[in-house]
Amino acid sequence: MLLRPIAVRSTPARPAVHCAAAPAAARLAALLVLGVGLICGLPAAARAQAVTLVNVSYDPTRELYRAVNDAFAKEWQAKTGQKVTIRTSHGGSGRQARSVIDGLDADVVTLALAGDIDAIARESKRLPADWQTRLPNNSSPYTSTIVLLVRKGNPKGIKDWDDLAKPGVQVITPNPKTSGGARWNYLAAWAFELDRSGGDAGKAKALVAAIFRNVPVLDTGARGSTTTFVQRGLGDVLVAWENEAFLAKQEFGADRFDIVYPSLSIVAEPPVALVDQVVDKRGTRAVAQAYLAFLYGPAAQRLIASHFYRPFRPEHAAPEDLARFGKTRLVTIDGVFGGWAKAQAEHFADGAVFDQIYQAGAQGR
Amino acid sequence: MSDQPAALPDEGSGRPAARPTPVIRPRPTVDETRATKAILIGTAVAFLALFVVLPLIAVFAEAFRRGVDHYLESFADPDTQAAIRLTLTVAAIAVPLNLVFGICAAWAIAKFEFPGKSLLTTLIDLPFSVSPVVSGLVFVLLFGAQGYFGKWLAAHDLQIVFAVPGIVLATVFVTFPFVARELIPLMQEQGTAEEEAALTLGASGLRTFLTVTLPNTKWALLYGVLLCNARAMGEFGAVSVVSGHVRGLTNTMPLHVEILYNEYNFVAAFAVASLLAGLALVTLLAKSVLEWRYGDALGRTRLY
């Protein structure tokens, strides 16, 4: 109470104090606002005329889509005058699908296998269930297969799938639960034994179980496994996408690794799809559609082959690129396993064959 | 920390002179043999060199492996710049938020008695004890498209996870104990006597806070903010879960390091990593300076 008059008396002086303090505070505030504005505002200003597409892809396509995106952006700008920026996200295919289901706004998904895009359609309804019929070749502008990458000179003498099950051989493969490539790896080994034993599923299961007993690390994505094998020097053999094996050889020197084609492998179809809910919300349907169509065109098909993927239309690719691919007997998922939905449920769902053999293997250790 | 370097030269220069007086054994409890001492110190130093110094050198060595030009070139990549910008933005939002929260919580806990106080104290520590993956997943569970608020958010066209707000949320969650944890012990130690005096003299609550409490705790506050900032910029796990990893949009620096590494772009990966390591070193330096200069004001009852 006593202090009140003092406070009142001091009021005339206050404006002066305020004036001195206020500009400093205001300047600080302005600086802060300016700083945040600059940080957030730059991309916003650029967005005004340009369009951004988000492509959520799987692990080994990083280099491919960097090249394809540049080519598409050039073509689209020449055609329409609009600047398009394509943002990509890469990771294990299953994990990427999970993110899209949980709300990651992907205009297009380009994943490792149809099963993962099926999961997006089923769980989130962000695209129709019949998405795979909308583009040619089961919506796969490129395919690949599964090969074995071994250290130079093949010291462990690995020739075929059954060599991976031998004691003392360390096998590197990602986790089939999170990685699309790993599921193709698994199915290729299974198909091999099924074929060799004349359709004995028990023998196939035993071989795959024996292979997984030889796996010291399960990375979440194909690229993680490649780094484990190539960079960290773990393991005797990497079970990998053909494109990933060629890329590793190119990046780290052909004198360090050899590619071994097993006697039988599987045609891996990594499909692409438009996410209808997202493109309609963001108004990007036209450019997203053009992007996917571009993948089937001559320019992209040529890039696809040069990045070690098998193009859907080989006539557009450089012959020397095609000549690099090894020859082997290839089976399809539809032919051997009755499609992805069935293979997924039988082998990779919770408690299905992979869980059984992996848990048994873990207990055996 | 500060008296040790001062004590060492004394000991060194005093050794020759100490010979004539072997009779005096002031502290027989610490007369380990020289060998024991050497082993103890040697182990500690070797351990530190192997697990801290060597990796740190490796980061910088890898970053500069192909020369300064390549190092600088790494930062010309627009995606790298976007990652740096995003990390700074996130820290610029998360740190002030936690500053406010930390002060409020510390003030409430240290100066007042209220029911549920011990529960609040425990809850503040939760982000320390829970795995960062879980911290990320809870936000996907709450704000993801299939989450509790997913439908509502989608209907209002709001994007939280896989966008900047989600990354900020996860960062705030992970870093929120830092400021409060620094302040609480100090404020408790200081007690409420000075505030009571100010209030008795008629100062308002706000004025008491601004002119008494805040100046008393400013160094601890700064210390807390430093730690909070270091963690906010360096957080990987929780942010990785809510980020979606879209480069140029939702990639922070730590995530970008992983991406570059996975793309065989080792120089760039370690260049960005060296920025983060540099930040850690600056933080550590600032922290040491604070401790050395204002050790007393920082409070002796710190919990870690």
How would you describe this protein?
Chain A is 53% helix and 14% strand. Chain A has 17 helices and 11 strands. In chain A, strands 4, 5, 6, 7, 8, 10 and 11 form a 7-stranded mixed beta sheet that branches. Chain A has a 4-stranded mixed beta sheet with strand order 2-1-3-9. In chain A, strand 1, helix 3 and strand 2 form a beta-alpha-beta unit. In chain A, helix 4 runs parallel beside helix 5, helix 7 crosses helix 8 and helix 9 packs parallel to helix 10. Chain B is mainly alpha-helical. Helix content of chain B is 75%, strand content 0%. Chain B contains 15 helices and no strands. In chain B, helix 9 packs across helix 12, helix 9 runs antiparallel to helix 13 and helix 11 packs antiparallel against helix 12. The radius of gyration of chain B is 24 Å and the shape is globular. The chains are: A alpha/beta (365), B mainly alpha (304). Chains A and B meet through helix 2, strand 1, strand 2 and helix 9 of A and helix 4 and helix 14 of B.
SSE layout and pairings?
The complex is a heterodimer of chains A (365) and B (304).
Chain A lengths: L2 H8 L3 H34 L3 E7 L4 H19 L3 E7 L2 H9 L6 E3 L3 H11 L11 H4 L2 E10 L19 E2 L7 H17 L4 H13 L8 H9 L6 E5 H11 L4 E4 L3 E5 L3 E3 L1 H7 L2 H12 L1 H9 L3 E2 L7 H5 L5 E3 L1 H5 L2 H9 L4 H12 L1
Chain B lengths: L2 H16 L15 H30 L3 H7 L4 H34 L5 H8 L1 H4 L2 H12 L6 H6 L8 H12 L1 H14 L2 H8 L4 H30 L2 H7 L9 H10 L3 H29 L10
Structural class of chain B: mainly alpha
Oligomer designation? heterodimer
Low-confidence spans of chain B: 1-18, 300-304
- Measured between the Cα atoms of the first and last residue of chain A, the distance is 80 Å
| Chain pair with largest interface | A-B, 35 and 31 residues
Radius of gyration of chain A: 27 Å
Strand content of chain B: under 5%
Helix content of chain B: over 70%
What spatial form of chain B do the alpha-carbon principal axes imply? globular
